[in-house]
Every structure is written in structure tokens, then in C-alpha cells.
Amino acid sequence: MALDPSSDRPLFRQLADELRSEIRSGRRSGGSQLPTESEFQASYGVSRTTVRAALRLLETEGLVVTRKGFGSYVRERPPIRRVASNRRHAAHRASGRPIFDTEVEAQDHRPSRRMLEVGRSEAPPDVAAWLEIKVEEPVVVRRRLQLVNDEPVVLSASYFPLWLAGGTRLEVPGPLAEGPDAAIENLGHRFARVVEVVSTRMPAPEEMQVLRLAPGTPVVRLLHIDYDPDLYVGDRHEFVFEWMEPGFEMKEESGKPPP
Questions:
Q1: For 65-82, what is the mean pLDDT?
Q2: Which residues contact 209 (CB under 8 A, 6 or more apart)?
Q3: pLDDT of amino acid 252
Q4: Which pLDDT tens digit goes with each residue over 22-54?
Q5: Which domains, and CATH codes, for the chain?
Q6: In the 3-class helix/strand/coil scheme, how is the chain assigned residue by residue?
Q7: 232 pLDDT above the threshold of 50
Q8: How confident is the model at residue 70 (pLDDT cuts 50, 70, 90)?
Q9: How far is the C-alpha of 12 from the C-alpha of 46, rounded, in Å?
Q10: Which of 75, 106, 149, 162 is the most buried (most CB within 10 A)?
Q11: Residue 78 — very low, low, confident or very high, per pLDDT cuts 50/70/90?
């Protein structure tokens, strides 16, 4: 497509429009390398400044990444789907693995994780509110970076009240092969109800670094709270859904779950 120098729309935006269309249509696939600046200049008859401005714009939109010394590439977007349903706990029970691993492997990808912190500290104010504890009250925290095909995709932190997690496997420093949900059930608790609260924002600088985010890429914050008759567990991922686990549906006449 030829660019129009007589148009009111700047040339760098015209070039960005063309590349954006090619990326979104699939003509330029994720991970493919874009032409060099010299090749863009020869193909479109524009200056190096115009090419760089167009690529910077696409970087801020999260469509292109530039690797110093290697050039610019179409940003890869692994199609990892997280399904919010009342069968999530059933899935990890069947596999004997963490829910994240189970879902990623079901989509023919390779999950892994790196533990960042296991210990005791205060929970963020909104998490403390969901846990119905005081802000200054210590909780057990498990922070990890979760990866798909060695690419970071989730910064996750789980917060557990001390009455639940203190002195249990939830304080083991390394990853739990069975996952924290199974560890909780092995303590005698049952998952009966779930609430998920979703928000979006731009990442903090340290989050951009750990998740290897391109400039302009937003993140989704998922606050996931599991309940049993006594239990409050907050799992913060770096979507509000609510449902009842099978066998715990609310009875209209009583307003209470069955025993």
C-alpha cells in the first residue's frame, strides 16, 4: 500500500495504520520479524524518522516489540484461556496438579513457575477486608511468577490467614506439587463459594520488568476469594464472577447453603 504525502494524516500514522492492519489480519504473524528501517524506507519512500515514529506508536499499543541489536518483531500473544467456572476445583482434583498447570497443559502449552516469596507479612488493605482481618494482622503469603512456554504471564500472590496456614505446607518455601488449593483441602476444608473481582490498570515499573511487558501494555488484576463455611482465601493475580460449587447451591426458601 502506498502512503499519501498529500493527506492530512501524518506519514508515520499512515505507516502504523498499514502495519497494524497487517498484524491484526494475521498477514504478519506473532513473533515474525518486521523489515529493517532501511527496508521500510525503500518500500514506502519515507524517512528513517517516520519509520521510527510508526514503530514507537505500535510499541505503545502493544503490537510490536523492539529487541536491541536484533530489530522489531510482531508481539507474540499466547492464546492462554482462563476459564472461570464452578468446575475449576474439580479440574485440579482430577489432575493432582495446580489449576494453572492443568489449564495450560490442556491448551498444549508448557507451564512453569518461579517462587518469589514465601513468608509472613501484612496483606494489602483490600485483601485484608475480604479476609475479614485487620490490616496490620500478619498472613502467610506465597508469591510466584507463572510462565507459559518460559514466557512470564502471571504475577500471583496468595494470602492465607494464620489460623489456616500457620505451620502447614502452605509455608513450605518451594512450589507445592499439588498446588495450594489441594493443600487447603488436605487440611480438611471444602471450597463452597467463589468471588472474583476484576480490574485493569497500567503496570508498575517492577511489574513491567518481571513480566517483560512492552510499553503501553496494560495488566488485569484478578482478586479471587474462595470460601468454605469458615475459610477465606485471597488469591491475587496481576475478571466480578460469582458462583456456587456443585452441592452448595443456595436454597431460595432458606437463603442458606445445604449442610
A1: 79
A2: none
A3: 44
A4: 999 989 998 899 999 999 999 999 999 999 999
A5: 11-74 (1.10.10.10), 88-244 (3.40.1410.10)
A6: CCCCCCCCCCHHHHHHHHHHHHHHHCCCCCCCECCCHHHHHHHHCCCHHHHHHHHHHHHHCCCEEEECCCEEEECCCCCCCCCCCCCHHHHHHHHCCCHHHHHHHHCCCCEEEEEEEEEEEECCHHHHHHHCCCCCCEEEEEEEEEEECCEEEEEEEEEEEHHHHCCCHHHCCCCCCCCHHHHHHHCCCCCCEEEEEEEEECCCHHHHHHHCCCCCCCEEEEEEEEECCCCEEEEEECCCEEEECCCCCCCCCCCCCCC
A7: no
A8: confident
A9: 9
A10: 75
A11: low
- Once rounded to an integer, what is the mean pLDDT over residues 120-145? 93
C-alpha R_g of the chain: 23
